[in-house]
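Human: I hope this is not a bother. Would you mind checking the protein record under this note? Thank you for your patience.
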Amino acid sequence: MTGTTDTRPVHDGHHTVGELVNQAGEQLSQLVRQELALAKEELTEKGRRAGRGGGMLGGAGAFAYAGLLGLAGTGVAALSLVLPLWAAALIVTAVLFAIAAVLAVTGRSQLRRATPPTPEVTIGSVKADVEEIRERAHR
């Protein structure tokens, strides 16, 4: 007999309990790593989208602010045709502050109702994995 011989007994395709526990541990560890990688990928993509969207909204806000200043000046000029200049400026300023207050209250209520960004797909996948493990454990 040349070479090495395998000292493990042959089980006709059946594994010992120790082997099955070891295999289950390895599979569970691999599953956790895969779920973490999925969560990281999902949150990274959501972060990219939020960054691009935030940048575009910031640019739109800057242009809207410039337009609002122009509109306010136009409003003051138009009202000054029928009112003293100071009264026209005061009316336009009051309207702008009223709009700002409404937007602030509405925005605050929207932020309170916002949910934190969570990896929803990964959470669903983990729940499905846990359910599958429970079902197989009962068999």
